[in-house]
Amino acid sequence: MIENLTKKYGKSRESLIPILQAVVEKENYLSEEAMNEIAKQLDISAAQVYGTASFYSFLDTEPRGKYVIRVCKSIIAEMKGKKEIIRTLENVLKIKVGQTTSDNMFSLLETNDIGWSDQEPSMLINENPYTNLTPEKVMSIINEYRK
Amino acid sequence: MSSHNLKKTDIIFGICHTSDDNQNILPGGVCKTSRTKYTVLEEVIKKDPQDIINDIIESGLKGRGGAGFPTGYKWKFGAASPEAEKYVICNADEGEPGTFKDRDILLKVPGKIYAGMTICGYCIKAKQGYIYLRGEYRYMIPELQKVLDEFHETIKEIGFDFHIDILLGSGAYVCGEETALMESMEGKRGEPRNKPPFPTIEGFRNKPTVINNVETFVNVVMIQKLGVGEFSKLGTQDSRGSKVFSVSGDTPIPGVYELELGMKLSDFVDEYGDGDTKAVQVGGASGFCVPRKKFDDTIIGFEGIPTGGSMMLFNSSRSMYNVLCNYLDFFAEESCGQCTPCRVGCQQLIRGIKAVKCGQRPPEYLDTLLKLTDSMRLSAKCGLGQSVANSFSSIVSNFTEEMIY
Ligand SMILES: Cc1cc2nc3c(=O)[nH]c(=O)nc-3n(C[C@H](O)[C@H](O)[C@H](O)COP(=O)(O)O)c2cc1C
Ligand code: SF4
Ligand code: FES
Predict the structure, then answer these.
(1) Which of A138, B58, B116, B271 has the highest count of CB atoms within 10 angstroms of its CB?
(2) CA-to-CA distance for B222 and B218, rounded, in angstroms?
(3) For B189, which of A21, A52, A118 is closest by C-beta distance?
(4) Residue B334 Cα, ligand 1 centroid: separation in angstroms?
């Protein structure tokens, strides 16, 4: 896979982040093997790859589920009922913030402002935003993803 | 000019301003008259780049990303360099809490953003532009790319030699800082560089680079379209034009609004507040908190409180202590950790206000913390660490009781 990505993005240092992003999109996170392989292909040290990846919150270096849920925790979200949304997600998924379901379907995380403060509470599932959340809405969204 | 009533404007989102233009509107909000699209660009290419830059200087346009540097001068510096390789970057990282206006500009009028970047490329003689889009906006890429592909064809027909690529961020607020953004584009950790040299001298790939906010580029297009005179009728002496605001919090009508710059905060609160507004945070977590008693004396604009457009309203049910804690957690998390005042300072501020709140430290300790933010303002390497003082001191000094009891 990495070889295909270097064919697409090139082997310069500038292609590092697009490659890392593409791996996360495919495999949900950056495994050690993937990072080592990228380092080899781009001819830089594994430490440089890891150092870059670990800087960015979306370039996960821990295993994540197929669907990564990121609930906004910025101030407006907090004011508009983020806690209840987290509680609902923890209940339906039976995990805590920071964890992944045992079937590797969902990971639940919190994140800073995602650009929807006018429609809080909000969350991203992978790249897709969901806004004006209510506990009922959250449950039906999760049910859709489970199908 | 000081008794300014709230005026809604329609510069950024308004589609077109002449009747025949309105007959053919492209997705992306740029006018299409008969076969020819992007009429602005057809006029622009007939002009001397120097004249366009002078227009922008004369218009008084200042950057819409927060810092407010005069756009025309930035372009002039970019144009002055004799280097053959130069770049135009559109900063679409929009990570400031409570800011979402670039989201709507990107979704509604992407064509105007591309046109503004192309005008910049023409003025400074750059052939390549990049949009650095925050990772949280990845869902926009298919639509943005579609409009961009059409755009490329059109400008080729008109005769521009300019190409735009979209690059994606990966969830780091500090990458909105212009030099961190360039580090990130170069495939590295998004750690801000020392300035000077400024990007117009050494930017992306160490080449002269002009970087502007999404909204700034759109303003340039509208200055060309409307003329300098029409544009500078809006706003005040120091704050020309209109501004797109992100309105959130305790308001019955949260959303994106385009308003004339230089308004009084009290006029704004009359329109957008819920009748019980206790404070407005102007400019996001890195901006200033204004308490009710100062609404009347506060001007929103470069002569008062400058802002990237975030307006968060808080009513009397809100704890300003909680608000401040949320901001400080945000800064501590997003600090790149490169310099000590910011990395350690953010942590100490969190510990400090918690210690005062629970009585472990006397109220006077807040003064020590205020001194700490003063030194962060002076010694932090980039705007992130420097601006922690803004919200900290404005909240702590205006809502001292809430910090203690
Ligand atoms: C921590 C930090 C984050 C920033 N984030 C953004 C941003 O998301 N968008 C933006 O346009 N400017 C942001 N800026 C300001 C940029 O560094 C730069 O001043 C701006 O892009 C210049 O464009 P303008 O002159 O058109 O405003 C940020 C600055 C700092 C210090
Ligand atoms: S002020 Fe903060 S974010 Fe800026 S360079 Fe220093 S540690 Fe990094
Ligand atoms: S507060 Fe959640 S997106 Fe802004």
Answers:
(1) B116
(2) 6
(3) A52
(4) 15
Does the pLDDT of residue B2 top 50, yes or no?
no
Coil vs helix vs strand at B301: coil
| Ligand 1: centre distance to CA B65 (Å) | 5
A70 backbone dihedrals φ, ψ, rounded to 5° = -120, 110
Choose among A29, A147, A136: nearest CA to A89: A136
Convert the pLDDT of each residue in B350-405 to its tens digit.
Answer: 999 999 999 999 999 999 999 999 999 999 999 999 999 999 999 999 999 999 99
Residue B237 CB neighbour total at 10 angstroms: 12
B175-194 residues touching A, CB cutoff 8 A: 184-191
Taking CB atoms and an 8 Å limit, are B186 and A79 in contact across chains? no
Strands B163-168 and B128-133: parallel
pTM as predicted:
0.95
- The number of helices, as runs of H, and strands, as runs of E, in chain A is 7, 4
The alpha-carbon gap from A142 to the nearest alpha carbon of chain B, in Å, equals 19
Q: Could you tell me where the DSSP H helices lie in B87-177? A: 101-108, 110-124, 141-158
Q: Which of B325, B330, B332 has its CA nearest to residue B346?
A: B332
The per-residue pLDDT for range B111-122, each reduced to its tens digit, is: 999 999 999 999
Mean per-residue pLDDT, B37-43: 84
State which residue of chain B sits closest to A60, comparing Cα positions: B170
> Tokens 């949280």 belong to which residue?
B136
Interaxial angle between packed helices B71-80 and B214-226, expressed in degrees from 0 to 180 and rounded to the nearest 10: 90
Write the CATH number of the domain with boundaries A67-146.
3.40.30.10
Beta carbons of A78 and B170 less than 8 Å apart: no
Does the Cβ of B175 fall within 6 Å of ligand 2?
no
Is A126 in contact with A68 (CB distance < 8 Å)? yes
Out of A85, A114, A118, A130, mutate this one to test ligand 3's pocket (max ligand atoms within 8 Å of CB): namely A114
Cβ distance B170 to A57 less than 8 Å, yes or no, reads: yes
Query: Which residues are CB-contacts of A54 (< 8 A; sequence separation ≥ 6)?
Result: A61
Integer angstrom CA distances of residue A106 from A21, A101, B139, B287, B391: 19, 6, 19, 36, 36
Residue A10 burial (CB < 10 Å; 0-12/13-18/19+)? Answer: middle
What are B5's two structure tokens? 């009533």
Calculate the dihedral angle through the C-alpha atoms of A73, A75, A79, A84, rounding to the nearest 10 degrees.
10
- Distances in Å between the Cα of B193 and the Cα atoms of B92, B167, B183, B190, B232 are 19, 20, 8, 9, 35
Size of the A and B interface in Cβ pairs below 8 Å: 114
Domain ranges (residues) in chain A: 2-55, 67-146
- Smallest Cα distance from B349 to chain A, Å: 18
Per CB-CB distance under 8 Å, the chain A contacts of B184 are 17
Cα(A138) to centroid(ligand 3), Å: 17
